[in-house]
Amino acid sequence: MLRPLISRALMLRALIATLFACGAMPVALAQPVYKYQLPDGRIVYSSEAVPNGKLIGTVRPAPVPQPVDADKQAKMRRDREAAAQAGRQRADRLEAANAEVIAATRMLEEAKARQAAGVEPEEGERSGTVRPGLSRPNSAYLDRQRQLQEDVEAAQKRLDDAYKARNEAR
After folding, report:
1. CA angle 116, 117, 123 (to 5 degrees)
2. Which among 112, 93, 109 has a CA at the least distance from the CA of 162?
3. How many Å apart are CA 105 and CA 159, to the nearest integer?
4. In this predicted model, what pLDDT tens digit does every residue of 92-148 receive, in sequence order?
5. Is pTM beyond 0.70 here?
C-alpha cells in the first residue's frame, strides 16, 4: 500500500516540474542573447556579460509562433488548394500547347514534302505548243501548285499560332 503512494507522489512531482519548465520556457526564450568575441578570437554567445569579451551584437530569438484560428486555417487550406488547382490547369494548358506544336510541326513537314513531290507535272497537266515535242504546264498544274503552296502556308500559320499559344501558356 505504501508503494502506490510513493509512485503517485513521484508522478505529482514530475507533473509539477513539467508544468514549471513549460511555464519558464517563454521567459527563457524572451531573454536576449549576446554575441561576444574573446581576446583569442573565439566567438561566444551568452545571456550574461562575458569578462574580457568584446560585445559584437545581440541575437534575437526566433518569435514564438502564434496559434492560428480555424477560420484562418480553412482559408489558408482553400488558398493552397486553389493555387495547386491553378498550377495543374497551367500545366495541362502547357502540355496541350506542346502537343499542338508537335502536331503543327508534323503537318508543316508533310505539306512541304507534298509540295516538293508535286513539282513534276502529272499526266494531263501539260499542253502542247505549236512546235512539235514541246509542251508547257497548263492551268491544272498551276492550280495544283497553288493548292500545295496554300497547304504549306496554312500549316505554317497553324505552327505560328501553336508557338504563340505555348508562349502564352508559359
Report:
1. 130
2. 93
3. 6
4. 999 999 999 999 999 999 999 999 998 888 888 888 776 777 788 888 899 999 999
5. no
Phi and psi at 67, nearest 5°, equal -65, 145
Q: Which three cell numbers stand for residue 129?
A: 505548243
Long-range pairs for 139-145: beta carbons < 8 A, 24 or more residues apart: 144/118, 145/118, 145/119
d(CA 156, CA 111): 9
CA distance readout (Å), 14 to 46, 134, 136, 146, 166: 29, 115, 109, 95, 65
3-state secondary structure 132-167: CCCEEECHHHHHHHHHHHHHHHHHHHHHHHHHHHHH
Phi, psi at 32, each rounded to 5°: -75, 150
